[in-house]
Amino acid sequence: MDIKFYKYQGTGNDFIIVDNRDETFKKEKDIIANMCHRRFGVGADGLILLENDDEVDFRMVYYNADGHESTMCGNGGRCIVAFAKMLGLIDKHTTFRAIDGLHKAWIIEDVVSLELHVKAQPLRDTNGFFIHTGSPHLVVPVSDPEQISVESEGRTLRYDPCYQTTGGVNVNFMSAPIENSKIYVRTYERGVEAETLSCGTGVTAAALVASEIYGINESVTVVTKGGTLRVGFSKKGSTFEHVSLTGEAKFVFEGKYWIM
Ligand SMILES: N[C@@H](CCC[C@H](N)C(=O)O)C(=O)O
What we know:
The chain is α+β, with helices and mostly antiparallel strands and 260 residues long. It has 2 domains: 2-112 and 249-258, Diaminopimelate Epimerase, Chain A, domain 1 (Roll); 123-247, Diaminopimelate Epimerase, Chain A, domain 1 (Roll), CATH 3.10.310.10. The protein has helices spanning 29-36, 74-87, 150-158, 200-214; strands at residues 2-10, 13-19, 46-51, 59-64, 93-98, 101-108, 111-115, 123-124, 129-132, 136-141, 170-174, 182-189, 194-196, 220-224, 227-236, 239-248, 250-258. The ligand N[C@@H](CCC[C@H](N)C(=O)O)C(=O)O binds next to helix 2 and helix 4. Ligand LBFN2T5F binds at residues 13, 45, 64, 70-71, 73-76, 135, 170, 189-191, 199-201.
């Protein structure tokens, strides 16, 4: 049988999206991992299913490139909103369901803003700052992320035993502000087990940590290898509210994937 798929990317974090409203997609780890494989498959950092929901516009189900279902994906969330718009399911606004609850989003042309759920304020530990922005993230402030071996240092921290309660972490190496409220971030992603060009929940985690440690109280602009994102928020005491992630989310190509 063949699977109709759509390829999207948000600041270089790329995804296979399948419209699974008819529930025909086989949710098997090996099929998903093979589809995401960059040499034997379509190639992607993750695969996303768009499914029906009784209460809101649609449901997002997210799998990492290793084929395992995972926690919230910020760039994937922005891409599925662009996909829902292309399908004609939504117009400029939407509310959809993901693994961590309901998300509101807005779309203007190729730019999608997505509200994210932040569980608590950043927690300082011996490696950096832990914060859950829908997915678990470690943010490590460094003087120059370009000098870091993200693959090896990221992988070591990703498997640090102190993060096993959340099934490991994604690891973000963050610069000090390069201009007023602009930072540069590189991310090692759990489930891809490599550096990705950008990670939406990681960029959000880094922006909130930057707000804490550098006293930035407005939005933070985050430069990644795949492009620039903006993280908006407001602060009530030390709690972050109305956290949003904004940037481009683009259709790349569509096709059919053949399964024996
Ligand atoms: N690329 C993502 C994060 C996806 C989930 C992550 N790999 C994990 O398993 O925690 C993003 O844009 O947020």
